Structure formats: structure tokens, C-alpha cells
């Protein structure tokens, strides 16, 4: 049977009809839109507040550095949430696609995203009772738990959002969530810096993680207020075999997506030095605890502004351009960090890092949604996240090995090269998918080989 006749591809010729139905949300969705926007923005704000108190870029690496000198272990810390977000999505996407009501699954799975911060507070409290190795084991176990909780809940959450928000307003919705989270992250980061400075260790970290836990609990509560309409329609994917067959089709037939996936893998090198910037500034440039909180706030503030500006630029001139710029900016930040002569240089380093993170993470995720048509999109989302998971874990391992065996500046140089190579692959090998989607949807599928 030709794959175009399988359940996953069935109905491609009826896409105009599907598009009309997608653009015409029912009255229940419209009625609850303001309510859902409000509760989800508040939910995102509290999530951002918690993320500021327990930042994977600054606060947690600093906590872990008290128990180990291994740059390899510390470099893994910011990679864990990214890997946890990416890796499980393809494994759960086909099952999520069969659900008719997402909210119960979202609420159950997000407990595993938010509760681990309380575990970090307990570990910090036990610092005086446990040896360093045990603390490290517990800390990384909790971080992995939190990362996987994010990844397992991601497909259900994204599906719920797509269901409760009309497609024409998704950009505004995601922009509002990101802005609320980043602004509150600044408050959390600045408050964490004061706690670290004013309170003796380990109680300063205990309070940081406790504040993060309270914020995450409030985040979960407001998420539970989301109103999701009941949908009795059948899933467009009938069997697991159809879903996995569709992945094979994409990888064989969509060369543009393959190059995009390669570019995203390479971009993990450009993002690799983020935790090392903080450690290099603290241990080699003499940055104090209060400055750590301030520079985290600079990072969050940059991401807030950059997310809005880069999203606007991507809407008008294409997300590919934004990714290229973000890759170059990441390379610039890495070079500047290697050449820095004092702490003040790192404010520019973190501004560049914030711009690069917004481009290579947020805008890359938006660009993934532009590949394929509506029926193919779940498979693209799963592939777009899971394929880059190995690079997400290997790049910080490489960075940590370089720091341990050579020095920080060499790691920054490797990251700069990675950023430039990423920009080159995007420029030469990738075409903006928003202009190619119709060609792939209506032509490539028709010429698939017999199965």
C-alpha cells in the first residue's frame, strides 16, 4: 500500500477544508479564550519566578560547584532540561495524538516538572549531613526527574494549547507566556542573588529552592484553571505503525528538514558554554554573589526583549534569518568571553547569550512548526526535538572535557566555531519552509515509493 493512502496521509487533498475548520474556532473556545489567556499567563509568570530562583544557568551550577570541581558535571546541568524536553517527545507523540481530552494528562505529568524543586531544597538542607558524592547523586537524579517531567508533559501541553487557542492567535499567546515568564524570572534571579549574599550557606540555597517550589505550586494551580472543551472527534492517526511509517517518509523525502535538523544539532555547540560563562566569571574574574543574581536578571531581560523582537522579525522576514543571526551572536559571545579582561565584559556576553538562546531554542521551535502540513506536523515536532537530543547531551560533555583537560577559553573557541558552522549550514542548506510547505504537501507525497 502506498503511504499516501495510510491514515496519517489520508485526506491531504482535503487540506483546504481542514484549514477552514481550523480557522473557525467554536463558540466555546472563543468564550473561554480571555479566561484561558489570563490563567496561563499567570501560570507562566509563576513558572518563570521559580525558574529565576533555581536557574539552570547560574544558581544550580553554583550550588553544584560547592561539591565538585568537575566542569564536565557542571556543564551537564543546563543540558538536562533541554535533553529532558527533547528526548521523550517522539516516544509519546503518537499516544498523545489519540487523546480527545488533554488536561488530565497535562496536570498529572506536570507534577513531575514542578515537584522536583522541593527535592532540591531538601538536598540543600541535608548538605551538612551528607557527603559530597551523595549530594551530587541526589541532585542530578532530581534534575533528571524534572527534565523528563517537562518532556513527557510537553506534547500533551502543546496539544491542549493548540486546542484552546485559535491558530491566528497562537503567536500572541506564546509571546505573552514567554514575556510573563522572563519578566518574573528577572525578579526571581535578583531575589536569589540577595539571598545568596545575605544568608549563610547552605540555608541560602535552601531558601532559593523553597521559593522556587512555592512558585511552581502556584504555577500548577493556575494551569489547573484552564478550560478545555470536550472533543469527540476521532484521531487522524489510527495505528502506531502509521505514525512510525510517517517518520520514515519525512526523513527520506524532505531534504530541507534533514539539513534543518543537522543545523539544530550543530547549534548545541554554540549553546554549550552557557554554564561555563558563570563559573569562568566567578573563579577567574572575581564576580561576586550579588553580581550573579544581577547578571542572571540581564540574561532573562535580554531573552524577554529578544523573544518579542526576534519573533517579529521572523514573522516578516523568515525564521531562517533569525536562526542565522542567533548563531553568529552566540559565536560573538563565546569569543568575547574568551577575550574578557574584567567582570563587566560578561554583561555583554550574557546579553549575546540571551539573544542566541532565544533564536536557537524558541525561534527554532517555531520554525519546526512550519514544516509539512497540519496532518504531518506532530511527526515533524517529534522528530525536530528528539533528533537533536544526542547533540544536546554530547555538546556539554565535550565542553566539560575541554575545560577539565585544556581550559575555558578553548571551550569558548569551539563554541564560536560551532555557531559559525551552524549559520553556514542554515544559509547554504536550508530554505525557509513556509514557502515550501505547499510543494511538499501536494507533490512529494504523491511520488512516494510503494511499500
What does this structure look like?
- It is a multi-pass membrane protein.
- Pfam families: MFS_1 (PF07690).
- It is found in: Cell membrane.
- Residues 212-451 form the Major facilitator superfamily (MFS) profile domain.
- This protein is mainly α.
- It folds into two domains: 25-230, Growth Hormone, Chain: A; 239-451, MFS general substrate transporter like domains (Growth Hormone, Chain: A, Up-down Bundle), CATH 1.20.1250.
- Helix content is 76%, strand content 0%.
- It has helices at residues 15-23, 27-53, 59-64, 71-76, 79-86, 89-96, 103-114, 116-125, 132-164, 170-198, 203-223, 240-253, 255-271, 274-285, 289-317, 319-339, 345-368, 377-386, 389-405, 408-429, 437-442.
- Mean pLDDT is 80; it is low at 1-25 and 437-451.
Task: Write the topology of this structure.
Blueprint: H1 15-23, H2 27-53, H3 59-64, H4 71-76, H5 79-86, H6 89-96, H7 103-114, H8 116-125, H9 132-164, H10 170-198, H11 203-223, H12 240-253, H13 255-271, H14 274-285, H15 289-317, H16 319-339, H17 345-368, H18 377-386, H19 389-405, H20 408-429, H21 437-442
Our count of helices gives 21
CATH architectural type of the largest domain: Up-down Bundle
Tally of strands: 0
Give the biggest sheet: none
CATH homology group of the largest domain: MFS general substrate transporter like domains
Amino acid at each position: 500500500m502506498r503511504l499516501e493512502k495510510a491514515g496519517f496521509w489520508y485526506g491531504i487533498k482535503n487540506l483546504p477544508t481542514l484549514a477552514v475548520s481550523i480557522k473557525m474556532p467554536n463558540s466555546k473556545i472563543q468564550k473561554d479564550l480571555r479566561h484561558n489567556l489570563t490563567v496561563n499567563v499567570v501560570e507562566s509568570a509563576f513558572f518563570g519566578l521559580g525558574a529565576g530562583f533555581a536557574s539552570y544557568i547560574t544558581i544550580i551550577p553554583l550550588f553544584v560547584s560547592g561539591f565538585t570541581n568537575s566542569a564536565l558535571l557542571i556543564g551537564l546541568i543546563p543540558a538536562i532540561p533541554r535533553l529532558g524536553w527533547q528526548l521523550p517527545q517522539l516516544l509519546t507523540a503518537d499516544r498523545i495524538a489519540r487523546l480527545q481530552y488533554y488536561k488530565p494528562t497535562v496536570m498529572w505529568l506536570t507534577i513531575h516538572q514542578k515537584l522536583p524543586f522541593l527535592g532540591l531544597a531538601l538536598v540543600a538542607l541535608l548538605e551538612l549531613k551528607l557527603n559530597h558524592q551523595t549530594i551530587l547523586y541526589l541532585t542530578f537524579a532530581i534534575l533528571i526527574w524534572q527534565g523528563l517531567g517537562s518532556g513527557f508533559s510537553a506534547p500533551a501541553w502543546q496539544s491542549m494549547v493548540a486546542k484552546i487557542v485559535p491558530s491566528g492567535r497562537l503567536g500572541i499567546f506564546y509571546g505573552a507566556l514567554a514575556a510573563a515568564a522572563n519578566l518574573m524570572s528577572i525578579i526571581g534571579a535578583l531575589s536569589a542573588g540577595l539571598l545568596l549574599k545575605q544568608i549563610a550557606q547552605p540555608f541560602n540555597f535552601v531558601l532559593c529552592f523553597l521559593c522556587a517550589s512555592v512558585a511552581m505550586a502556584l504555577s500548577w494551580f493556575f494551569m489547573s484553571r484552564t478550560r478545555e472543551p470536550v472533543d469527540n472527534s476521532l484521531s487522524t492517526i489510527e495505528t502506531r505503525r502509521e505514525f512510525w511509517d510517517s517518520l520514515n517518509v519525512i526523513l527520506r523525502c524532505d531534504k530541507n528538514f534533514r539539513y534543518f535538523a543537522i543545523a539544530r544539532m550543530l547549534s548545541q555547540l554554540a549553546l554549550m558554554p552557557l554554564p561555563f560563562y558563570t563559573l569562568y566569571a566567578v573563579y577567574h574574574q572575581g564576580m561576586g554573589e550579588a553580581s550573579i543574581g544581577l547578571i542572571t536578571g540581564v540574561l532573562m531581560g535580554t531573552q524577554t526583549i529578544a523573544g518579542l523582537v526576534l519573533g517579529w522579525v521572523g514573522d516578516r522576514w523568515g525564521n531562517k534569518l533569525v536562526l542565522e543571526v542567533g548563531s553568529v551572536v552566540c559565536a560573538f559571545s563565546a569569543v568575547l568571553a574568551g577575550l574578557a579582561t574584567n567582570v563587566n565584559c560578561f554583561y555583554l556576553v550574557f546579553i549575546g547569550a540571551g539573544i542566541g538562546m532565544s533564536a536557537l531554542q524558541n525561534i527554532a521551535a517555531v520554525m519546526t512548526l512550519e514544516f509539512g502540513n497540519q496532518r504531518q506536523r506532530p511527526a515533524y515536532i517529534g522528530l525536530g526535538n528528539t533528533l537533536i537530543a544526542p547533540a544536546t547531551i554530547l555538546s556539554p560533555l565535550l565542553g566539560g572535557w575541554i575545560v577539565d583537560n585544556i581550559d575555558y577559553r578553548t571551550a569558548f573557541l569551539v563554541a564560536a566555531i560551532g555557531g559559525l558552522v551552524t549559520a553556514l549550514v542554515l544559509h547554504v542548506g536550508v530554505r525557509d519552509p513556509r514557502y515550501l510547505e505547499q510543494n511538499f504537501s501536494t507533490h512529494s507525497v504523491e511520488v512516494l515509493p510503494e511499500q
